């Protein structure tokens, strides 16, 4: 099997590629992988086993139709991670989000259709639903995104589903909750806080710290994506969640403890514009149909993540110096 992985040099895409090449999934044992990645600020070849003979790396833009039409033929599946992924950056400037997340996705879909690749897994986010005060979203919930990032992801989800309904393409969409784990660029809350705290630096906590997120270890996310690639029903949406909801204040407390730091390093800052209050996914569908359940508990996952950042300063220090945080 030949799998094209877009955004495979980023945090989640590279975790998926490493798992495939380590033969962690029975359904993709011996699969070969082509990574197509622009190497934007968050893409990093140090995340990938570049010497592995089953890996081909192509540096390029998913919105480059000539390149994409050249690269796609011969692949059996596409797993599409490439995106601009940080909400704060989308608030500062939304255009790159539209170019990559919307135009880039349509460019890929067009090329995948022309090349008649098999399954196209479009990786998306719970943020497309907006915010929910009580209960959890099911896959039939209407999208109501608030940030430019979430709006661009919702747009690309709709285009991916339209390619299935209009052209009969074998498309499946996944929507997952907040990921954490090793190799995450130190701008998102967990790696930003951990790397600051390990250096004895303060951490910024938005607003009243009461925003609630569901936390999912990246390995559980990637396993869910693989289940969807192998067994998901065409044209469907599947949620992938962690079942670990915490306020940002609660998360901060756990990170302080894991890093051996105190609350005096926490600096309350003005809230993010349009900050969604709570995300919550119902994962009954993927659990019942595909047998998915998260395996990494939050305590264990946070502890191993902090251990990884402690042990891999040479990975994150240059990124912070370059201006990630
Ligand atoms: N991180 C999360 O918590 C989370 C949660 C839900 C969904 N997602 C989705 O998962 C996917 C991956 O997120 P991530 O956290 O790994 O992001 P990331 O920013 O770490 O990685 C994105 C990758 O895409 C590449 N890229 C960006 N623009 C590109 C372009 N035009 N052409 C080719 N490559 C390009 C980057 O170089 C990078 O390697 C995204 O689609 C995101 O929306 C992420």
TrEMBL record:
What's the short name of a Pfam family annotated to this entry?
Answer: GDP_Man_Dehyd
- Keywords, ordered alphabetically: Lyase, NAD
* Cofactors that this protein relies on: NAD(+)
A Gene Ontology molecular function term for this protein is:
dTDP-glucose 4,6-dehydratase activity
EC no.?
4.2.1.46
Please state the span of the N-terminal signal peptide per the UniProt entry. Answer: none
Q: Please, one GO biological process term?
A: nucleotide-sugar metabolic process
InterPro entries (UniProt xref): dTDP_Gluc_deHydtase, NAD(P)-bd_dom, NAD(P)-bd_dom_sf
Q: Which reaction does it catalyse?
A: dTDP-alpha-D-glucose = dTDP-4-dehydro-6-deoxy-alpha-D-glucose + H2O
Q: Where is the NAD(P)-binding domain?
A: 4-304
- The residue stretches assigned to a coiled coil in this entry are none
PANTHER family from the xrefs? DTDP-D-GLUCOSE 4,6-DEHYDRATASE-RELATED
Give the UniProt family note. Belongs to the NAD(P)-dependent epimerase/dehydratase family. dTDP-glucose dehydratase subfamily.
What protein is this chain from? dTDP-glucose 4,6-dehydratase
- Source organism of the structure: Paractinoplanes toevensis
Q: Which gene encodes it?
A: rfbB_1
């Amino acid at each position: 099997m030949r799998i094209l992985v877009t955004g495979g040099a980023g945090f989640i895409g590279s975790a998926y590629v490493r798992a495939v090449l380590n033969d962690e999934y029975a359904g993709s044992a011996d699969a070969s992988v082509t990574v197509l990645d622009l190497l934007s600020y968050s893409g990093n070849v140090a995340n990938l086993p570049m010497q592995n003979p089953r890996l081909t790396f192509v540096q390029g833009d998913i919105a480059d139709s000539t390149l994409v039409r050249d690269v796609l033929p011969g692949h059996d599946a596409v797993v599409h991670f490439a995106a601009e992924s940080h909400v704060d950056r989308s608030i500062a400037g939304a255009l790159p989000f539209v170019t990559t997340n919307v135009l880039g996705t349509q460019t890929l879909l067009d090329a995948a259709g022309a090349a008649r690749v098999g399954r196209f897994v479009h990786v998306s986010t719970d943020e497309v639903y907006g915010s929910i005060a009580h209960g959890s979203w099911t896959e039939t919930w209407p999208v109501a995104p608030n940030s430019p990032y979430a709006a661009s992801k919702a747009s690309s989800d709709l285009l991916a589903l339209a390619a299935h309904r209009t052209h009969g393409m074998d498309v499946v969409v996944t929507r997952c909750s907040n990921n954490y784990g090793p190799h995450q660029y130190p701008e998102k809350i967990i790696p930003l806080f951990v790397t600051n705290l390990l250096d004895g630096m303060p951490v910024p906590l938005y607003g009243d710290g009461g925003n609630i997120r569901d936390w999912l270890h990246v390995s559980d996310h990637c396993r869910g994506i693989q289940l969807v690639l192998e067994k998901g029903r065409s044209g469907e949406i599947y949620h992938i969640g962690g079942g670990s909801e915490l306020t940002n204040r609660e998360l901060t407390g756990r990170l302080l403890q894991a890093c051996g730091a105190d609350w005096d390093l926490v600096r309350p800052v003005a809230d993010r514009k349009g900050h969604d209050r709570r995300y919550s996914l119902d994962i009954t569908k993927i659990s019942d149909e595909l047998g998915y359940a998260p395996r990494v508990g939050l305590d264990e996952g946070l502890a191993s993540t902090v251990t990884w950042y402690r042990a891999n300063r040479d990975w994150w220090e240059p990124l912070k110096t370059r201006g990630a945080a």
